[in-house]
């Protein structure tokens, strides 16, 4: 006797589930089992909760098509024939569309479809799959290659922005990622720390070593900072020019320093890293932020050419000048007024109205950032700009203790004028990612000229005169002998923006240095050529001892030697000097990239020494608030992962 068949299931949900028994069904996407009994609500909830990337729509297709694939510019739709209701209806079978389109397009797509049944299952992402019941490879999950790409993007949170790895455990972050792609499984903190991060670090180190082997000469910069747990770190970065005169940098190491480190232990650490990266005898210049222990390690122990970071020195001089008692008290008073307006909504509103009444475009007062003198300048500049509005508002608010006196306004205006001229120095440096060693002599000349002009001003207040004197003494102490530094002077001379001008008709010593360096390269080339020529001559003599060209060849070789020494070097240097200066905002390396064949030996000197820098860190960290934020985040890293994260942050371009 023929067994009675079970009740036919008409819901399109059954195209995504397989019946196990009368009370249980298995999901064809994740293979999990669910109870359904007499309704499919439990199954539908599972799809909405776990597979929200699908929208199931039952439609009536064209006759004669059992399985039809539709394609549009916005989505891919695969139709799977559903079981027929009755024998009479088999000529026009119903189909189930599994639409893989963005959520915002669902209503538009549904409007254009003849719908018999259309339950919407919270579609989020576009995932196409075919033969859903049989082909497990087409399930809407993040596959290995795509998952690796997403993981790499996730790692940028920790590498580029120094966010804590524990971010992946935050409920809000996980919810955000799930809303973007419910099928993406967020890696755990442990997996990131023990698998993803070490793998990326190892790959980056290997690529960095490949690049490092191409270095012929380099400048190293050292940077120290202290973490929030009072651990000290030392970062060592190499800078060099490639064969096409492009500036490159590679972070070599980020090391945890001993608690009681000395100049000798620092020198050992630096020397160990230089040897490890095969840069021994390739260091032409070194820059540090000015700490005595690092300077002594480099100058006294390693015996390398050393220079203290120019911008750190400049900041120190300006900071000392602004710290004299009358100025410090005045700036503190300005901060107090600014804080009052920023923290009192009513006072801030009154200030806004006062500016309108004074026919001034309404602006907000600025608060300075500690340890950044240029932010103090911006605060004072805006304060002076709103002088009338501030005075009126303070009077209305009856806050006389905040009232700035006339002589104090005079000092603030004079300070604004002085700091504005000094700010131009930081802008000149900030135009470049790194400050080249050709800039300090030029900028120092500008600083000395500013002091001379200020000294000649008879109408300055006594307080401002003290500031000018403090600046002058500081500049003299730190920058008066920059032209005697062989690397700085040669780099300045070889910068096509400056050449001999910064030396004020005293370019003789630096020109001689450059000529000597060119002669050195000429001799190296000559020795290489002579070695090859002698080999050819001896080989030819074995073959043919007598030659009609013997006398000519000897005379030509002698003539070549006579003209390949000092005279050739002098001529090439003179031609370079006579060439026109380029605009001071132009890129000197771009100029050398174009003219290297016009000055073949001088360009070799440039490639050897022009990698030298005048600052120990990128200018973006020195002058911008975003740079300070990154440094602050970095200081909060735990020591366990600092080495890897900082290395990847500095060398992220090498990952590709």
UniProtKB/TrEMBL annotation:
Q: Which SMART domains match?
A: ZnF_BED
Reply yes or no: does the keyword tRNA processing apply: no
Q: Which domain of life is it from?
A: Eukaryota
Residue span(s) of domain BED-type: 8-51
Q: Name one GO cellular component term.
A: nucleus
Entry's Pfam families?
Dimer_Tnp_hAT, zf-BED
Q: Which InterPro entries match?
A: HATC_C_dom, RNaseH-like_sf, Znf_BED, ZnF_BED_domain_contain, Znf_C2H2_sf
Q: Which SUPFAM superfamilies match?
A: beta-beta-alpha zinc fingers (SSF57667), Hermes dimerisation domain (SSF140996), Ribonuclease H-like (SSF53098)
Q: Where would you find this protein in the cell?
A: Nucleus
Biological process according to GO? post-embryonic development
What keywords sit in the KW lines?
DNA-binding, Metal-binding, Nucleus, Transcription, Transcription regulation, Zinc, Zinc-finger
Its Gene Ontology molecular function terms? DNA binding; protein dimerization activity; zinc ion binding
In terms of one coarse class, where is the protein primarily found? nucleus
Name of the featured protein: BED-type domain-containing protein
Q: From which source organism is this entry?
A: Nezara viridula
């Amino acid at each position: 006797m023929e067994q009675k068949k079970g009740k036919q299931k008409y819901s399109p949900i059954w195209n995504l589930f397989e019946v196990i028994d009368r009370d249980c069904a298995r999901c064809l996407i994740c293979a999990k089992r669910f109870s359904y009994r007499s309704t499919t609500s439990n199954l539908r909830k599972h799809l909405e909760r776990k597979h929200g990337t699908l929208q199931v729509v039952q439609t009536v297709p064209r006759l004669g098509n059992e399985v039809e694939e539709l394609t549009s510019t916005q989505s891919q739709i695969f139709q799977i024939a559903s079981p027929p209701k009755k024998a009479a209806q088999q000529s026009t079978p119903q189909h189930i569309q599994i639409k893989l389109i963005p959520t915002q397009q669902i209503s538009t797509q549904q409007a254009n479809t003849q719908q018999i049944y259309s339950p919407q299952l919270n579609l989020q992402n576009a995932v196409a799959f075919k033969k859903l019941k049989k082909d497990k490879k087409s399930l809407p999950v993040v596959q290995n290659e795509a998952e690796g790409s997403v993981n790499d993007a996730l790692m940028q949170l920790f590498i580029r922005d120094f966010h804590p790895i524990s971010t992946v455990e935050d409920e809000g972050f996980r919810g955000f990622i799930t809303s973007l792609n419910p099928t993406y499984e967020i890696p755990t903190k442990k997996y990131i720390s023990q698998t993803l991060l070490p793998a990326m670090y190892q790959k980056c180190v290997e690529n960095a070593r490949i690049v490092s082997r191409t270095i012929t000469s380099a400048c190293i910069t050292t940077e120290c900072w202290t973490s929030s747990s009072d651990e000290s770190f030392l970062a060592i970065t190499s800078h060099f020019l490639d064969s096409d005169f492009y500036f490159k940098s590679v972070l070599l190491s980020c090391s945890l320093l001993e608690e009681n480190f000395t100049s000798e232990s620092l020198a050992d650490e630096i020397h160990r890293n230089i040897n490890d990266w095969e840069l021994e005898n390739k260091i032409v210049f070194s820059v540090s932020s000015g700490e005595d222990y690092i300077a002594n390690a480099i100058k006294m122990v390693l015996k390398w050419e050393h220079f203290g970071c120019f911008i750190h020195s400049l900041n120190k001089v300006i900071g000392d000048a602004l710290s004299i008692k009358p100025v410090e008290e005045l700036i503190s008073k300005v901060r107090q007024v600014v804080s009052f307006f920023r923290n009192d909504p009513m006072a801030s509103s009154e200030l806004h109205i006062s500016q309108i009444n004074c026919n001034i475009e309404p602006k907000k007062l600025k608060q300075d950032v500690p340890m950044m003198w240029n932010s103090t300048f911006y605060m004072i500049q805006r304060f002076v700009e709103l002088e009338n509005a501030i005075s009126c508002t303070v009077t209305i608010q009856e806050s006389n203790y905040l009232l700035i006196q006339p002589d104090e306004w005079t000092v603030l205006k004079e300070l604004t004028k002085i700091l504005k001229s000094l700010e131009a120095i930081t802008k000149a440096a900030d135009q470049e990612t790194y400050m080249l060693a050709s800039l300090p002599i030029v900028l120092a000349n500008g600083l000395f000229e500013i002091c001379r002009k200020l000294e000649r001003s008879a109408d300055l207040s006594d307080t401002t005169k003290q500031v000018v004197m403090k600046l002058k003494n500081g500049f003299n102490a730190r920058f008066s002998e920059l032209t005697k530094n062989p690397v700085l002077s040669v780099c300045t001379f070889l910068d096509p923006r400056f050449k001999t001008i910064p030396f004020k008709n005293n370019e003789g010593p630096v020109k001689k240095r450059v000529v000597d360096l060119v002669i050195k390269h000429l001799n190296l080339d000559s020795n290489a050529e002579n070695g090859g020529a002698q080999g050819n001559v001896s080989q030819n003599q074995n073959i043919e001892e007598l030659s009609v060209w013997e006398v000519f060849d000897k005379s030509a070789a002698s003539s070549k030697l006579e003209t390949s020494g000092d005279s050739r070097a002098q001529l090439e240097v003179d031609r370079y000097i006579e060439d026109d200066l380029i605009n001071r905002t132009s890129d000197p390396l771009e100029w050398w990239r174009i003219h290297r064949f016009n000055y073949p030996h001088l360009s070799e000197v440039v490639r050897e020494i022009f990698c030298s820098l005048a600052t120990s860190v990128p200018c973006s960290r020195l002058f911008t608030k975003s740079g300070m934020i990154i440094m602050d985040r970095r200081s909060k890293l735990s020591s366990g992962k600092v080495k890897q994260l900082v290395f990847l942050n500095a060398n992220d371009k090498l990952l590709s």
